[in-house]
Amino acid sequence: MANPIVGTIVHAVGGVAASTCYVPYQKVKKWSWDSYWIVQASFAWFIFPFLVGFLTVPNLWSVFSEASTEVLFNATLLGAIYGFGGMCFGFAIKHIGYSLTYTISIGISAILGTIVPLIMHGELAEKFYAPGGYIIFFGMFIALLGIIICGIAGYRKERDLKGNTTEDGAPLHFNMKKGLTLTLIAGALSAVFGISLEVGAPVAEIAGNYGAGNFEGNANLILSTGGAFITNFTWFTIVGIKKGTLQELIDVKGVGRKNLMLNFGMSILSGALWYGQFFFYGIGHVQMGAYKFASWVLHMSMLIFFSYIVGIVMKEWKQVTKQTYFTLVVALIVLVLSFIIMAYGSKQGAEIAASR
């Protein structure tokens, strides 16, 4: 039986995984970003999805063979389009940090990834007027407000950091203009991933019929991540050949055996954490029951919240003014409030539906 409260908690676990997935990169040594990315992308979008899919979905090949060719193709294609968003996301982090990148790009994704599928299915009004529906939409509005306040904190952070240096005397690199452009692209394309999962939902339903239970989402996730993998692997293989960085993956002499093992380990960990967010998303999505449409915005809001916690832990906000830090705290409080409202609306709706 579906339980929206359990679903909310599981989405929170996914949010923690997602907000920390790029942290291991800090430990990578003597590798370019391109080398790190191609390894983590291979595990995040190909190896882990297929491995876990085969372990958790009975008769996986039969599931795919029964699914519509159109659904399989469209879900994979949308995943491939999202792949470019993943690249922009990674580069944006280098310009404006974890907190702002997650806030702006995932904020856009949260709204578009929720509203667009409802419009596609003609269910926007139906979901709004369903029991608890208006409460959930109000929670979505509060989440959007929290995201906007996070953006304000980000601009204040940029102002505060101008002319500052790191602890070792190097200048702080914070390019809001370039980072904002990348995050806007990443946000729009990230929403495409949510739409890809929605398009591939019939595959998950077939997996459920085969007894996949809470893991039915692992079936259509393979399609979405598979598309993203094709885009990223192709792009970074070409870039690696042109730049000559691809050889770093096997350069024991130049990189060092110890560093090579460390780099692969950190890259694989990044891939595992990235995959983990949608592994838990699939479980949480099932638990939301009739209110699955709220899963995306809830999951993305959780991601934003925990990304700011990560940003604080990594001291990204250490040199900002008290006013800027206060703005950040207000934003986090508003986001937490939105989680509570959306969870309450889902629970109330589920109880009303069960009593009928």
By oligomeric state, this entry counts as single chain
How many helices? The count is 13
Determine the N-to-C terminus distance. 16 Å
**Strand tally, please?**
0
Helix fraction, binned, reads over 70%
Low-confidence stretches: 165-172
Query: What spatial form do the alpha-carbon principal axes imply?
Result: globular
Structural class by sheet pairing and helices: mainly alpha
Total count of domains? 1
How much of the polypeptide forms β-strand, as a percent range? under 5%
Order of helices and strands: HHHHHHHHHHHHH
Rg measurement, Å: 20 Å
User: What is the average of the pLDDT values?
Assistant: 83
The main β sheet shows up as: none
Structure explained in plain terms:
With 356 residues, this protein is mainly alpha-helical. It has one domain. Helices cover 79% and strands 0% of the residues. It contains 13 helices and no strands. The chain has helices spanning 4-19, 33-56, 60-66, 69-120, 124-129, 133-161, 176-199, 201-209, 217-243, 252-255, 257-287, 295-313, 322-355. Helix 4 (69-120) crosses helix 7 (176-199), helix 8 (201-209) packs across helix 9 (217-243) and helix 12 packs antiparallel against helix 13 (322-355). The radius of gyration is 20 Å and the shape is globular. The chain starts with a helix and ends with a helix. Residues 165-172 have low confidence and may be disordered.
